[in-house]
Write a structure and sequence with these properties.
Layout lengths: L9 E6 L1 H16 L6 E7 L14 H15 L1 H5 L4 H11 L4 H8 L4 E3 L7 E3 L4 H8 L12 E6 L6 H6 L1 H5 L4 E6 L24 H19 L7 E2 L5 E2 L9 H9 L1
Parallel strand pairs: 1-2, 2-5, 5-6
Antiparallel strand pairs: 3-4, 7-8
Length: 260
């Protein structure tokens, strides 16, 4: 907030696990009413909602484990300075983990974390990997998101579609959240057709970028037209509504819906 211009607004965008962290942040801060006033909204792309590492099918669980173990090796000099035998045992088990589920179970006792409630006190460790996955899942606090949030999900997302759709009702119960589910797009793809001729990879630009920009613009326009300063919410019919907002004030969101 201190680095923003007076009256400046901040929109948060998260991808994949980053979007899970984003929604968890908005939900926890919304519950405690500690969300900075400069945060005007959020966009969540490819959010799994429910973290359950052992459910990842081959080879994705194994590939994620490789990346996690690589992170330990890159900082091994720092880990070697830990004299606690319990910490060393956990790190050794993690380096031997074949899947990301096994890695999480090994490292859960020494993961750093915060209480989900204000003042978000720092703590160390979980008793089990299952406790870590439950605490990390954003669906548990989605009902407390207090600012406009756009969630994009693709039906052919091989990584997050199944866990996400199983917990989708938690998002739909919150009138501040708009859920957009597309037929295709993969995991964070959403390439448009025809491909951009200037793109060296031969793929189109991401439709999600346009949807994100449209959503941000619509929220800003609606806030400008809402002179009473009342928060924006979405109706069950997916229309954007706010108390005392006249029908003509909803035009920016109608346009956004047509593009989505």
């Amino acid at each position: 907030s201190a680095r923003l211009a007076e009256g400046g607004k901040l929109f948060l965008v998260g991808n994949s696990l980053g979007s899970n962290i984003l929604v968890k942040y908005l939900g926890e801060e919304g519950f405690d009413q500690t969300l900075p006033p400069c945060v005007a909204g959020g966009i969540s792309l490819g959010n799994p909602l429910h973290i359950n590492s052992p459910s990842l099918i081959f080879p994705y669980g194994h590939l994620l484990s490789l990346g996690a173990r690589k992170g330990i090796l890159e900082h091994f000099r720092s880990f070697r300075k830990m004299n606690n035998s319990h910490h060393q045992q956990c790190i050794h088990k993690a380096l031997c983990a074949a899947t990301i589920g096994e890695f999480d179970r090994a490292m859960a006792p020494i993961y750093s974390r915060n209480d989900p409630y204000f003042p978000f006190t720092a703590k160390i460790g979980y008793e089990r990997g299952e406790d870590y996955w439950t605490d990390a899942s954003s669906y548990r606090v989605a009902q407390h998101v207090s600012v406009p949030l756009l969630t994009l999900l693709s039906k052919d997302d091989f990584l997050v579609y199944n866990p996400s759709v199983q917990k989708m009702t938690y998002l739909l119960e919150n009138p501040n959240i708009m859920v957009v589910k597309t037929r295709c797009g993969g995991h964070l793809g959403w390439q448009e057709s025809p491909p951009d001729s200037k793109n060296i990879f031969g793929v189109g630009t991401s439709w999600a970028d346009t949807a994100t920009a449209d959503f941000i613009d619509a929220v800003i326009q609606c806030k400008k037209s809402n002179t009473n300063g009342v928060g924006i919410r979405f109706a069950e019919s997916s229309s954007f509504i706010g108390e005392r907002v006249m029908p003509e004030d909803l035009d920016p969101f109608r346009n956004t819906k047509s593009r989505l």
